[in-house]
């Protein structure tokens, strides 16, 4: 079964509609529109303790840009600027500095609040930012040794159905169903195909593979995938390493015969995949490419690589 744990250490307080308030007061009415119809957007960010003991958020402004873009896509009026939201994220961490001295996961969320009901309603937008201690999303063992994945019977929604550039709350039901199916079948994660049968992404991560020619491949942004910020970071890291990379479509059986497969995402970070659909990937253990990417990624987020210093915002 999945090694993911539901137990989390949360902050004592949250940022809600422009104010820091106690965690227990961060509640919304049952008639909140987004609770009924799923009209909201969210982001996931990580703050890491750097090598010099400080706390830094990884690619804060890129995440807030995507947050604002997601709101724009679904016509959700965002009452704060991107810079205000960046500062709010930092404020949440500052007031919880001791609690999250080793790092934290941040969750900004904007959603249509209560008022009118019905699909045509337009109510004021509410915005919250929470934080908690979230370790390796797919487990520490999975990070070290690789996980088992299953190609899902659920298909990634078509681009005319799913607004793929938005991180939209209601759209994640598709991912939840795929994830639950995989876990109930004894796997750690699901891989979804697009409507044409090509590999799209995992339930909450982008996917990379290394073929027999040692070329790293990942589905292009013309596929129905989220434009992952960790994905973008890994592409840059690989290119800076001089490793050949292609953004192309590929089939599920290309995964089966690849040398390596790995997932990327804010929560999952860089997680190797050792098996897909009961087929061993490569040697059945994390390969040299993912190990190099993992090592560099964690050096970057810990402030040990000056050429990527612009990716860190210190608290």
Task: Characterise this structure.
The chain has about 325 residues and is an alpha+beta fold. The chain has 2 domains: about 10-135, Aminotransferase class 4, branched-chain amino acid transferase, N-terminal domain (D-amino Acid Aminotransferase, Chain A, domain 1, 2-Layer Sandwich), CATH 3.30.470.10; about 140-300, Alpha-Beta Barrel (D-amino Acid Aminotransferase, Chain A, domain 2). It has helices at about 35, 60-75, 80-95, 140-145, 175-185, 230-240, 250-255, 290-300; strands at about 10, 15, 20, 40, 45-50, 55-60, 105-110, 125-135, 145-150, 190-195, 200, 205-210, 215-220, 245, 260-265, 270-275, 280, 310-315. Strand 10 (about 190-195) and strand 11 form a beta hairpin. Helix 2 (about 60-75) packs across helix 3. The radius of gyration is 19 Å and the shape is globular. The two termini are about 35 Å apart.
Domain count: 2
Tell me what portion of residues adopts beta-strand conformation: 25-35%
Helix content: 25-40%
Return the average pLDDT rounded to an integer: 95
The CATH H-level superfamily of the largest domain is D-amino Acid Aminotransferase, subunit A, domain 2
Largest sheet: 9 strands, antiparallel
């Amino acid at each position: 079964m999945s090694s993911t744990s539901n137990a989390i250490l949360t902050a004592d307080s949250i940022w809600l509609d422009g104010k820091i308030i106690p965690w227990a007061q961060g509640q919304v009415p049952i008639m909140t529109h987004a609770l009924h119809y799923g009209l909201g957007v969210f982001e996931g960010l990580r703050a890491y303790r750097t090598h010099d003991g400080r706390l830094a958020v990884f690619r804060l402004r890129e995440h807030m840009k995507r947050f604002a873009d997601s709101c724009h896509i679904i016509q959700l009026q965002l009452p704060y600027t991107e810079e205000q939201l960046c500062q709010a994220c930092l404020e949440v961490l500052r007031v919880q500095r001791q609690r999250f001295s080793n790092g934290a996961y941040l969750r900004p969320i904007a959603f249509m609040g209560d008022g009118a009901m019905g699909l045509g309603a337009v109510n004021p937008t509410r915005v919250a930012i929470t934080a908690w201690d979230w370790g390796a999303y797919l487990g520490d063992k999975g990070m070290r040794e690789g996980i088992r994945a299953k190609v899902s019977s659920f298909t990634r929604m078509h681009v005319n159905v799913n607004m793929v550039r938005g991180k939209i709350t209601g759209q994640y039901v598709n991912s939840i169903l795929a994830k639950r199916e995989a876990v109930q079948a004894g796997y750690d994660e699901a891989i979804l195909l697009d409507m044409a049968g090509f590999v799209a992404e995992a339930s909450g991560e982008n996917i990379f593979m290394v073929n027999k020619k040692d070329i790293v491949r990942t589905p292009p942004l013309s596929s129905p995938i989220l434009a992952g910020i960790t994905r973008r970071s890994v592409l840059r890291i690989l290119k800076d390493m001089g490793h050949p990379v292609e953004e192309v479509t590929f089939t599920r059986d290309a995964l089966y015969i690849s040398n390596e497969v790995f997932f990327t995402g804010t929560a999952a970070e860089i997680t190797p995949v050792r098996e897909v659909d009961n087929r061993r990937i490569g040697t059945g253990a994390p390969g040299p490419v993912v190990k190099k990417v993992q090592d560099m990624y964690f050096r970057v987020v810990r402030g040990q690589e000056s050429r990527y210093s612009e990716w860190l915002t210190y608290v």
